[in-house]
Amino acid sequence: MASRDTIAVIAEELALAFQPLQAALSSPGALLDFLADLGWDFATPPAELDSLGPAIGHPLSLATTADTMNPAQIAQLIDGIRTAFKTIADLGSAAGLAGDFRAEFPRQVIDYVVVEYLLNQQPRWGYLLVAFGVLRLEAVPAQGGRLAYIRRTVAFEDFGDFIDDPLVFFRNSYRWGQSNFDGDRMVASFYQLLQAWHFAIREHVHDAATLDRLNDDALQPDAVFDASLRLVFAEDTLEPATFGAGVGLFLLPETPADKPGFAFLPYATGAFEQERPIAENLTLALKAGVDLTGGLGVLVRPDKDVEFFTGFASGTLSSASGNLSVLLKLGRAGEPILAIGTADASRFEFGGMSTEGGTRSRA
Fold first, then answer.
1. Are 278 and 269 in contact (CB under 8 A)?
2. Which of 59, 197, 208, 287 would bridge 80 by S-S if both were Cys, CB 3.0 to 4.6 A apart?
3. Residue 271: Cβ within 10 Å count
């Protein structure tokens, strides 16, 4: 009987993801608002959508009693979830709907359900997936008979290429390697991610000497940026200028030789190692083996080696020797992490994990 706990938890979460859709189906007006949110302009809701209400209502009603379900009821819940997704997919062949609506709307609903659940119920992990391009939020302007809307996408199609191309989500989401690289959206995604994890973040406007170096040889000088998004690891609360450490994210312009990219701009009063707990059992550390007081830039552009320079603040650019790394640690010694289930029943747990990324350069 204990083994049903984990299955019930997973099934309940899947069913509860339908709650925003249930709210949209609660009245004709709410449904018209939902359709408009997906870019569709209807005077009255299509009658073919009436089938969605009962289909999602059944698993939602069962999910409210998931804690006390027996195996037969859990099976009913799982079957109800399967039926709900099938009902959504079947709209793709509903004869009474316009062809463009049939072709797009079912996938829109599924993406909407998954994205909204992750961003509203699991925002830390949801915005992490947004930042790396697995989930996508893209503004689509009004065109033809469609309203302007935010396209929510789960990049299911990219999973097949992930093993051979680990950057596939990032590349396809932000158009990395192209002249129309969507850097603004990338920075906005990381801003939302850092907010969700309760980091201290700032916008920092750079001095003229630094900007001259970062924006050197821009194809469109009038379209360059003057500020970076800063992640603050530590600072003096009264006088931040006297002590501070963190890293900035700055968008690099396209030049005659290079496509647009970005720069990491660590800053500190000197060489440092700063570690910060960001959640229970989760720690983020920034380590640098170079002096950052003169300004440091880690420049990242498509199809080029990472470049590592100092001297931005002084206006005299030079290559640097040293290393910079970011370490994310999940877990503490002797304390396993409970991922799914309950501690005294069926569960999935792990001892801990860590990942470290960085760059090393020699002058």
1. no
2. 59
3. 13
